[in-house]
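Human: For the file, kindly provide a plain-text protein record giving the amino acid sequence and the backbone structure tokens, at your earliest convenience.
Assistant:
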Amino acid sequence: MNLITETKQQILNRYIAGPDMLEIALQDLDVVQLDLTLSAESWSIRQLVHHITDGDYLWKEFLLRAAGNPEQEFSLEWYWCTPQDDWVKRWSYAARDVSQSLALLKANREHSLSLLHQLPWLWENRLFISTRDGGQEKVSVGDVVEMQTRHVEGHVEDIRQIRRFHKL
């Protein structure tokens, strides 16, 4: 199989475009429309925005730790051991304004990009992450940046689906 891989710069271009992509997906939605969902069991647009930003914020620590203490363990076990729907409730995603989350996502991405430009070697630094089977996996900063890039893109597509469903 012939796999086409993106260059570091292509990934970084997609990464920094994430906040703008999200803002475009939210364009012209009013406060009520931010609470639209695909179903009673799915997350609203508002909840998705907060989830995207908080996920980005959590993984930012990975970059900082990889710069200061590479080859060590990184754990979000405290977060992963709780179902995502519980975090949505605990962190009050349904009631919060999205403007602060949008600003934080943009600032976090710009800050991370600046760090990656200042420390080009950081892209390859790795930390150990525990796997569900009790093992450990070495994960690079580049892997995390690419993962967070896909995370935003995937949830932006979820928002687009909600908009199409509601003909917005």
Q: What stands out?
A: The mean pLDDT is 93.
